[in-house]
């Protein structure tokens, strides 16, 4: 019964919405291409994408979401070819591995007449995309710098743990350094910790050996921050400094909520943005709802006052 | 070891000592001097303890890798296996906290599970290589992908975290110590010592070298080549399990990024230590030194601000090549 109802709905909707696509195509297909869950944030990304797929397919019976994950740029480019030629998608939602190398493959999808939504990492040619949904990396660096500046009263010694050498990391760090310019905050050391707990732990251990006084740590990412916390605890120097991570991992939001003095705040860079991009695209595809061309998700500062709003206990991230 | 290096010494008595044998130790001494010059903090007991404790994971795995490589094999799956074992261990312990309560019995069960899994994984790798007649490189490349995917699946793409009550119980295994020396360092030393005894003083150890040297001759000498190879992989699996038992209490978590590239670190440590990649020559103490050197390079780079962080990889690569060049330079003149 349920099946026939769904089928009927699909047929009706198909007739109503797309006479151009004809009878052969009863469903609207949305391809979603994202990086595989190779680190915590990407894990969150995958979880939110799967949740959104389930929710949207239930909400719009005519919609089929094809979710593919890739481990590197080359595989993602292959995925796009398959989505267009084999899966025959009508729209693409993509979170590119890297901006420059993915620009031409996405252009090819656009030229095949598909609707293109780009998430998080902008292409080098923005005219390709129909819709852009993104977090704001420079803003994230800036908000982090402002918080550290304010919390330290404009004066102090800090260390910075960077992510993986990429455009994202550079944008964050450049904006951060721009913002602390002119203050008396001194960056003692900066090292890559690859958005990884183990590396965060190791790099922080060495920073602790190297510098007898550290007032604050900008870890930039919550996975790194968790490693940093362990290193600081092991050295017994919790009282000396505070740690600012970023992303919005549930463990870190929980610490902020519980007023952990070591983790007084967090800066959001939510992996849930993929779900938002999928929802907007699906709405446009199925209901032909008008859309803005750009949605920028702000880098919100999470403090004990607003933390409960950003706490997702069920997410793996 | 003395037996195998004897002919070399006899051939060039003027050399005084065997650079091939002592090369890794010289390189290590050089790095220690460099580290002290870069930053005096380097020699502080706290820093040295950090470095040795960190080395324990890849070091223990590298001891196992020494056996596999000595027999002429290779195991690329160790990093992924470590991640998978850590994941399963955490899931099992979390599940047992309810019925058994947070305490040492749960930790012991977790450890047994880890060891069991390590042995089984080693057995699977070994059987595929010996009975399946597939090159070790391909077998372990395959299992590397399988274990990595399994841990990602287990963690739903995110991170598996140990129950906080359990963490408090288990924590001393990594952070505690005896006579001021952290537990992982003791375990590392014990594993290396046992490894050295097995490789140098037992029949099995000599068979490993004989097979790596020439497996046909070994077969004609009535050595059960397949059995020895299989055992080498099982030993490797056991070493991975021991490393995981020490790793889990550190951050209490496992994810898709756990143990990434450990296989290459372990292989690099083995080769820096003077073991031949093509097999036939195994050096446990060299491996230990190689593993320590790899962590030292990272540590020294973190202790100085003089070198651009973008160049870290280049410095590491250069030091590894120079270290191996040191010992091979004389070997090629023979």
Query: Runs of chain B with pLDDT <50, length 5+?
Result: 1-15
Strand order of the main beta sheet of chain B, please? 1-4
CATH architecture term of the largest domain in chain A: 3-Layer(aba) Sandwich
Low-confidence stretches of chain A: 11-25
What is the straight-line distance between the termini of chain A? Answer: 38 Å
Largest interface: A-B, 37 and 32 residues
CATH topology category name of the largest domain in chain A: Rossmann fold
| Overall body shape of chain A | elongated
**If classified by CATH, what would the architecture of chain B be?**
Orthogonal Bundle
Organism (chain A): Azospirillum rugosum
InterPro entries (chain A): Peripla_BP_I, SBP_2_dom
Family (chain A): Belongs to the bacterial solute-binding protein 2 family.
Main location (chain A): other
Describe the structure.
Chain A: Belongs to the bacterial solute-binding protein 2 family. Chain A: Residues 1-24 form the signal peptide. Chain A: It is found in: Cell envelope. The complex is a heterodimer of chains A (317) and B (334). Chain A has 317 residues and is of the alpha/beta class. Chain A folds into 2 domains: 2-135 and 271-296, 3-Layer(aba) Sandwich (Rossmann fold), CATH 3.40.50.2300; 137-267, 3-Layer(aba) Sandwich (Rossmann fold), CATH 3.40.50.2300. Chain A is built from 10 helices and 12 strands. Chain A has a 6-stranded parallel β-sheet with strand order 2-1-3-4-5-11, sandwiched between helices. A 4-stranded parallel β-sheet of chain A has the order 7-6-8-9, sandwiched between helices. In chain A, strands 10-12 form a two-stranded antiparallel sheet. In chain A, β8, α8 and β9 (242-244) form a beta-alpha-beta unit. The two termini of chain A are 38 Å apart. Chain B has a single domain (51-327), classed as ABC transporter involved in vitamin B12 uptake, BtuC (Orthogonal Bundle), CATH 1.10.3470. Chain B is 75% helix and 3% strand. Chain B has 15 helices and 4 strands. Chain B has helices at residues 2-11, 19-38, 45-70, 78-100, 104-130, 136-154, 164-170, 172-175, 183-201, 203-213, 215-220, 225-251, 262-272, 284-303, 312-331, and strands at 159-161, 177-178, 181-182, 253-255. In chain B, strands 1-4 form a two-stranded antiparallel sheet. Chain B has a two-stranded antiparallel ribbon with strand order 2-3. In chain B, a hairpin with a 2-residue loop joins β2 (177-178) and β3. The interface between A and B is medium-sized, with 37 and 32 residues.
């Amino acid at each position: 019964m349920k099946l026939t109802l769904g089928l009927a709905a699909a047929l009706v909707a198909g007739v109503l919405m797309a006479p151009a696509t004809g009878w052969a195509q009863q469903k609207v297909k949305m391809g979603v291409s994202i990086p595989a869950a190779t680190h915590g944030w990407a894990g969150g990304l995958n979880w939110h994408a799967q949740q959104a797929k389930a929710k949207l397919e239930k909400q719009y019976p005519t919609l089929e979401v094809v979710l593919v994950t890739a481990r590197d740029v080359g595989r993602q480019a292959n995925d796009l070819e398959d989505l267009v030629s084999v899966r025959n998608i009508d729209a693409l939602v993509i979170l590119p591995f890297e901006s420059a190398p993915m620009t031409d493959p996405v252009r090819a999808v656009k030229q095949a007449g598909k609707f293109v939504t780009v998430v998080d990492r902008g292409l080098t040619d923005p005219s390709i995309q129909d819709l852009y949904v993104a977090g704001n990396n420079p803003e994230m660096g800036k908000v982090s710098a402002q918080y550290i500046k304010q919390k330290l009263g404009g004066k102090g010694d800090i260390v910075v743990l960077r992510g993986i050498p990429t455009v994202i990391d550079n944008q964050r760090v450049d904006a951060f350094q721009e913002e602390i310019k002119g203050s008396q905050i001194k960056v003692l050391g900066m090292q890559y910790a690859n958005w990884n707990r183990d590396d965060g732990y190791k790099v922080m251990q060495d920073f602790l050996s190297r510098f007898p006084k550290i007032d604050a740590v900008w870890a930039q990412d919550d996975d790194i921050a968790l490693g940093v916390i362990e290193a600081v605890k092991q050295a017994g120097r919790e009282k000396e400094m505070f740690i600012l991570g970023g992303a919005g991992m549930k463990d870190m939001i929980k610490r902020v909520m519980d007023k952990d003095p070591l983790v007084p705040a967090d800066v959001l860079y939510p992996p849930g943005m993929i779900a938002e991009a999928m929802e907007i695209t699906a709405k446009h595809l199925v209901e032909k709802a008008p859309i803005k061309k750009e949605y920028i998700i702000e880098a919100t500062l999470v403090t004990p006052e607003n933390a409960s709003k950003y706490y997702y206990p069920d997410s793996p991230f | 070891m003395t037996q195998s290096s004897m002919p070399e010494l006899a051939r060039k008595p003027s050399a005084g000592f065997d650079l091939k044998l002592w090369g890794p130790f010289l390189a290590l001494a050089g790095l220690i001097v460099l580290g002290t010059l870069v930053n005096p903090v380097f020699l502080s007991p706290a820093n040295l303890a950090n470095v040795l404790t960190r080395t324990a994971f890849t070091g223990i795995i590298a001891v196992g890798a020494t056996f596999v490589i000595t027999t002429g094999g290779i195991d690329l799956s160790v990093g992924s296996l470590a991640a998978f074992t850590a994941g399963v261990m955490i899931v099992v312990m979390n599940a047992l906290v309810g019925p058994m309560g947070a305490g040492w019995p749960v930790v012991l069960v977790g450890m047994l599970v880890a060891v069991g899994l390590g042995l089984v994984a080693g057995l699977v790798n070994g059987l595929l290589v010996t009975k399946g007649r597939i090159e070790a490189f391909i077998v372990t490349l395959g299992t590397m992908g399988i274990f990595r995917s399994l841990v990602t699946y287990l963690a739903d793409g995110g991170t598996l975290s140990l129950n906080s009550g359990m963490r408090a119980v288990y924590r001393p295994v990594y952070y505690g110590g005896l006579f001021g020396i952290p537990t992982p360092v003791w375990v590392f030393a014990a594993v290396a010592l046992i490894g050295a005894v097995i490789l140098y003083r037992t029949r099995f150890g000599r068979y490993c070298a004989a097979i790596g040297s020439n497996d046909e001759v070994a077969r004609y000498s009535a050595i059960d080549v397949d059995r020895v190879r299989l055992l080498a992989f099982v030993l490797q699996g056991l070493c991975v399990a021991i490393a995981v038992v020490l790793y889990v209490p550190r951050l209490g978590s496992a994810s898709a990024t756990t143990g990434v590239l450990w296989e290459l670190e372990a292989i690099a440590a083995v080769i820096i230590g003077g073991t031949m990649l093509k097999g036939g020559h195994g050096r446990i103490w060299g491996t230990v030194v190689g593993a320590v050197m790899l962590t030292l390079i990272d540590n020294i780079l973190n202790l100085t601000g003089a070198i651009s962080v973008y160049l870290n990889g280049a410095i590491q690569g250069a030091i590894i090549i120079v270290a191996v060049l040191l010992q091979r330079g004389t070997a090629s003149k023979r």
